[in-house]
Amino acid sequence: MKTNFTEEQRYILAKKRVEKVSKFYKHLAVYVVVNIFLSAIFIVGDINDGDTFNEAFFNYHNYKIWLYWGIGILFQMINTFGINYFFNKDWEERKINDYMNEKEY
User: pTM to 2 decimals?
Assistant: First the structure.
């Protein structure tokens, strides 16, 4: 069932969608910046506690926050763009055309 919206209603809906997408990208940027900063602090702390750089850099515990916060980012992405954003029928058609236009298979 298709709903007929007025121009003003469509504008308001589009503006809300743009605000939601903008909020997601801001949250993603904060996620990356804060996690790089925290990981650096954790690595330096481990080095000060006697670990070598390689031990500190590859220690899983320094990156747990990336995983847990990343799950939240994933849910926000699904909420913002929808579950079928990347793998919908339009995406399939674009990929088929891309592969057909390639010179090598």
Answer: 0.71
